[in-house]
Amino acid sequence: MKDYMGAGAGTDDVLAAVVRGGRLSCQTAGVLAGLALVPGLVLHYVWPRIENAWWKCALGVELVVTSVLYVASFPYYRQFHANFNQLMFNAANDDMVALFWSLVQEFYLPVRLAVAFALALALWRFAVAFVVRWDGPRLSFVAAFPRPVRWCVRACALGLAYVVGLLSLFGGSLGWETGVDWENAGVTNDDFLNEAILDSFQAVHRGYVLQNRMLACNGLDFTVDDIRALAALHAGMQPTSDDIDVYLRRTATGNGLGHQPSHIFIILSESYANWPLLDKYKDLHIADGMRSIIAEDDSDYCPTFLPNGASTVSAVTGVVTGFADANLYLTTMPESFAAPYPTASAPQFAKLGYTTNFWYAGPATWERVGAFTQAQGFQHFYSRGDYGDVPGSVWGCEDEVLYAKILDRLAKDDAPSFNVILNASNHSPYDVDVAAKGFDAAEVRTALPAEAQDDEHLLKELGHYWYADRELARFIRAAKAKYPDSLFVIVGDHADRYNIDKTPSTYERYGIPFVITGQGVHKGTLCLDSAGSQIDIVPTIFELVAPQGFGYMSLGASLTANRQGVNYGFWITRHAIGKADTVPLVVEPVGDDQQDIDQQAMQDYINAIRSVSWWRAKYGPILDATKLEGRT
């Protein structure tokens, strides 16, 4: 099937796929071995007469299943251009009789099954001879050795079994930090090779997990009348239309930067929380890079900003689609792959003349991010497989490498570009050698509270924040030097990973920064008491760069005027924060200046953002109560 490989795939890519696939299949092999071994071990002591029969039966079943899946994977890929995936589980909804005859006539099902059974039989005969009827050397001669030697041999055997167990558990690694699983396995720049890395069982497991994620997307509990009223209220209109898109239309004021930047960058920085930017933590010096960017005349900063969700994928979906987290797993939903949503960022920036790029430090297979972003209109997607053999962790290449690759690639094309960048270094297992990068652990340790100074893991985490912050500032300055009229928006993908305080306030635990910098930006570009969430990033940029009268679609609002934000669990203003699912809403202060909120207005805002995000993403633009019939 080499013709399915891209023209750019070479021997190195093939070898990388083989090695990665071998590591991942250690996990599969461990499961298959365990399914046969554990009952066999019990039978050895409980019912030894049928132990051999069990081994033969177990090996036969496993080899038949393995062989059938292996033989089936070839026509499956030719049909769907993927290894086994979610589509397998849609077969239950098909006409089974028609499906059967289609398999017989088009895919020669009897012939393929015969080949699979013949392969299984050959492997079974070899396995029985090798495992069940082994007549070769045994370790019984060890019994003649002195007792210390016998114990040493037993200890070595147990040690070897332990290592094999770890390799099986963690996908060819000795720990989870470097383990391989189906989500991070695709490290080449070739779609075919990335699919080939997954053995058949891993591919089926992937399909099963994604199918369950999709089935868990129950969304929210609103009637169509609720949604119509809320959408209209949010848009400042009368609820006269059943077309949600009517309430999402916006028109740029043209009161922005006064020019259209050559390049626009949205940087979703892994675990980049806002709390290190607060004055109370400035002596740690782990956020000096972004502090210096914020201090410049061409920058503005909103300290009251929320992530779209609790994980990185929610940040991606928020920026890519423009929808808030509404209990929908958008990267698994067929609706997300049918066509870009009208609020999707990439197609709208393309209308302004920008080439649209998504840059990810990790593998394209993580959360289907490569396929998802391209389905939502990004013209180009770059991931770990495009960067070559570069330093990094199981989650992705080091930040400095990612930024260098971006600048190198942009230098080859003078076209204006819109870029979303997702880095990965500030992430467990926190294995960047930050000391070699220049991190002064001793200085940070002395600035920590006494009770935290001996927390080595916390120190490692702070070191990775420092590294991400430094490389982020370096990239912005390097890009500004090359492209002086560019625009940069910097946010965290989420917070809530680590804090110095064991019981941080809600604001310190969940808040992320919103920083905007570039030619034409100044202090006061954002409104004085701005607040928001990640769905407000794209409309903010449109209001700054789009010409007057440019029409765009958005659920979020520009931070040049927006004063509130909401996400999966919280709401925020410049002076207050709280949980979004309490009645009444409980106000917690942000800083020392506590102010109350308009309870009804905030509740309406929360419900509008959530209900529209749910319905439009799942059911389309038209409000139709019949679509909810039979829904549980």
Strand percentage lies at 5-15%
What portion of residues is helical? 40-55%
Low-confidence stretches: none
- The strands making up the biggest β-sheet line up spatially as 5-4-8-2-9-10-3-11
Cα-atom Rg, whole angstroms? 28 Å
Cα end-to-end separation = 44 Å
Number of strands: 16
**Mean of all residue-level pLDDT scores:** 91
Shape: globular
Number of helices: 21
Q: Determine the oligomeric state from the structure.
A: single chain
Description:
- This protein is an alpha/beta fold.
- The chain has helices spanning 11-46, 51-80, 87-90, 96-107, 109-132, 147-169, 191-197, 200-215, 224-235, 288-295, 312-321, 334-338, 345-351, 369-375, 399-411, 434-437, 441-447, 456-482, 506-510, 537-545, 599-619, and strands spanning 249-251, 263-269, 299-306, 355-360, 380-382, 392-393, 396-397, 417-422, 487-492, 512-518, 532-533, 551-553, 565-566, 570-572, 576-579, 588-589.
- It has an eight-stranded mixed β-sheet, with helices on both faces.
- Strand 4 (355-360), helix 14 and strand 5 form a beta-alpha-beta unit.
- Helix 1 (11-46) runs antiparallel to helix 2.
- The mean pLDDT is 91.
